[in-house]
Structures are given as structure tokens and as C-alpha cells.
Amino acid sequence: MLETTRHDSILELKMSRPPANAMNTELVTRIADELQAAPGAGVGGVVISGAPGMFCAGLDVAELLQHDRQGIRDFWAAFFRMNKTAATLPVPVVVALTGHSPAGGAVLATHCDYRVGAQGRFKIGLNEVQVGLPLAENFYFALRRLVGQPRAQDMAIRGALIDMDEAARIGLVNELVAPEEVVPRAVAWAQALTQLPPHAMLSTLQLARADLVAVLDRIEPQFAETATRHWFSDETQGAMRAMIERLASKKK
């Protein structure tokens, strides 16, 4: 489900949950736990990666639809913890977007410090609205701080998925490289930061994250309960079940 590899002082966390690295409670908890433990293990930076062609397909909706209210509340609490841990870790966190990165995959990417994307016909975006989920405040804020208010508003309310070239052009992705170079480039970026004077670099990193962290701190007490309420609304349940049916029909 999650493979760990050390590249000298850089820890790579590779999602390995075939076929699409869809997020369930166990996966997001594992990511959060590994992130949290990294600084104490002498890690100077973390790279989060996925499979070739598929970074992460978002939430495992089919599995999560089987959960009761407490199970969904636990998932949202774990999902929030994963993103907040990435945004507050006392070392840099880089995302190696090895392929498609919709919904939850894009959310995780926007809570990290740097995003290296794969060149090619891959899609990224916060398409939650298309499956009936209102966009959470921290999801929207994390998107807006990267691409600006007009683009964030347009992308969010349409639930738009865009290709990697456009994502790089508007700042959602920092740089694009050949698919086979995504992880090496992400590791190299993190390694370069470890060569800088550490106090100066990490203090500045904390300053750069402060706006996002303030939002996360403010909404944390009510996030899981609010997300759970939205999840069990008739509109959201109907839209997600319709999506599952469409996907199932395509496989026949």
C-alpha cells in the first residue's frame, strides 16, 4: 500500500495500492504516520510519489460508500491529518506527480511545498463538485494560493480537470519533466534544499506555509464533522453512486 525508499537523506513514500492508488482510511493514515515519523529518523526531506501514469485517482469512493457515519468521520479525520502533516512537517515535502492526479491526489499535492509533474496527457484538478462534494475551505484555499483567485474560483465551481501543461502554466504544478524523470527530479529538488543553511531555509519554509497552516488550524475542530455531513447528503450520495454505476458499466 505504501513503499518507502531512502535516497540518502530524502525519504520517498510511494503509494502502491493498485489499480489507481485510490485513498482509503488505511492509506491516508499510513502516509500521515510515515510523514510524522520522518524528521525523527534523520530525514531531510520527503517525496510523495505514485505509480507510472497514475499518481492517485482520489478517494476510493466505492469502498467509502460502504462505511457508516463513524467510519466516514474517521476517514475525513485521517485525510485532514495527512494533509496538515504534509503542510506542517519541519522538512520540505515534494510531490512527484507521476500521472493522473484528480480530487484527493490534487488536494494532497496542493498541501505540499513543491510539485513536479509528468509530461503527457495526464489530468489534475479538484473535481469534487462533479461528484457532489462541496469543496472544503482548506482545499479551496490551498488551490487559490497557487493559481490565484479568478482561476481557483473557475476551476473549483466547475470541478475542472486540466492537463499538466496548463497546470504548469498557471502555477498548480511547478515544473514538468519526462515521466521517468519525475521522481529523480523531485528527489533532487529536496536534496538541493538540504544543502542550504538549515535554520535559514526551514525558518523561511515555515513562513511561506504560515497562511495555509492558519486556515488548517482554524477549521480543524469542525472539518471531519462538516465533511461527514456533506458526505451523507442525498445529493452527494446520489452523485457518487451514479459515478460508480457509470464506471462499472464502462468495464463491461
Please provide the count of β strands.
10
What is the string of SSEs from the N terminus onward? EEHEEHHEEHEEHHEHEHHH
CATH level 1 class label: Alpha Beta
Look at the structure and give the mean pLDDT: 96
Mind telling me the CATH superfamily name?
A: 2-enoyl-CoA Hydratase, Chain A, domain 1
Taken as a percent bin, the fraction of beta residues is: 15-25%
**CATH A-level architecture:** Alpha-Beta Complex
Strand order of the largest sheet: 1-2-3-5-7-10
Helix coverage percent of residues?
40-55%
Structural class: alpha/beta
Between the first and last Cα atoms, what is the distance in angstroms?
Answer: 27 Å
Report the principal-axis shape. globular
| Main sheet specs | 6 strands, mixed
Q: How many alpha or pi helices?
A: 10
- What is the fold named in CATH at topology level? 2-enoyl-CoA Hydratase, Chain A, domain 1
Query: How many structural domains can be distinguished in the coordinates?
Result: 1
**CA-atom Rg in angstroms:** 17 Å
Question: How would you characterize this protein structure?
Answer:
- This protein is of the alpha/beta class.
- It has a single domain (2-181), classed as 2-enoyl-CoA Hydratase, Chain A, domain 1 (Alpha-Beta Complex), CATH 3.90.226.
- Helix content is 54%, strand content 16%.
- The strands form 2 sheets. The chain has a 6-stranded mixed β-sheet with strand order 1-2-3-5-7-10, sandwiched between helices.
- α5 crosses α6.
- It starts with a strand and ends with a helix.
- The model has no long low-confidence stretch (mean pLDDT 96).
